[in-house]
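Incident log, support desk, overnight shift.

02:14 A customer reports that sequence design results differ from what the structure should imply. Their input is reproduced verbatim below. On-call engineer (initials T.W.) acknowledged and began investigating.
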């Protein structure tokens, strides 16, 4: 549609999640019209996030050091682990202020359609945390959709024989929804109402 660099920018923006062709075009022309200093700041921020942000070696959350802020915090209960799919879900649960334990980020959910199996998720890393940290409860807070439920079921079957209490957050959450879009009250209640997961 457009020449060279402008079309490249529209194509790159269009590859981002939630950005359709029209939005990509609108953002591209916004950037073209913007002050050079603003565009440079955006470009520098993009480069900095890739250079500086990594994933916590313990829980898989985003971190700016070897371990994330939550894993380094001695006031957080290290005997309870909340398992979530993505770092953005950590933020969603933190917003509820219901949870004072630690997290484990799987990096996705089991999805046969997308070819994602248990080996593609950080499940081995989760198992390796159970023994040394003497975990007494694992809360499964994967998304309340088909993939999230399948992942929770898989983990419950895996963890139950190991003698750790396995709970699933209650739904009160919209089925088919996404943790990050739930309001604090709904997600907070879902947390408070968690129960043993039947296997
Ligand atoms: Zn961490």
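02:41 Re-run completed on a clean worker. Output:
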């Amino acid at each position: 549609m457009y020449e060279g660099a402008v079309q490249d920018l529209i194509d790159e923006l269009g590859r981002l999640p939630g950005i359709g062709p029209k939005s990509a075009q609108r953002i591209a022309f916004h950037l073209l019209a913007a002050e050079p200093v603003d565009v440079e700041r955006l470009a520098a921020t993009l480069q900095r996030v890739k250079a500086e942000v990594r994933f916590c070696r313990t829980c898989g959350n985003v971190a700016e050091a070897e371990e994330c802020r939550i894993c380094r915090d001695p006031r957080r209960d290290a005997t309870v682990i909340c398992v979530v799919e993505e770092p953005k879900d950590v933020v969603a649960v933190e917003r509820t202020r219901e949870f004072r334990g630690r997290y484990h980020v799987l990096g996705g959910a089991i999805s046969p359609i997308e070819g994602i199996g248990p080996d593609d998720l950080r499940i081995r890393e989760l198992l390796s945390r159970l023994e040394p940290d003497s975990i007494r409860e694992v809360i499964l807070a994967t998304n309340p959709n088909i993939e999230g439920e399948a992942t929770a079921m898989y983990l419950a079957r895996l963890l139950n024989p190991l003698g750790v209490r396995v709970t699933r957050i209650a739904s009160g959450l919209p089925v088919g929804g996404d943790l990050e879009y739930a309001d604090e009250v709904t997600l907070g209640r879902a947390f408070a109402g968690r129960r043993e997961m039947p296997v």
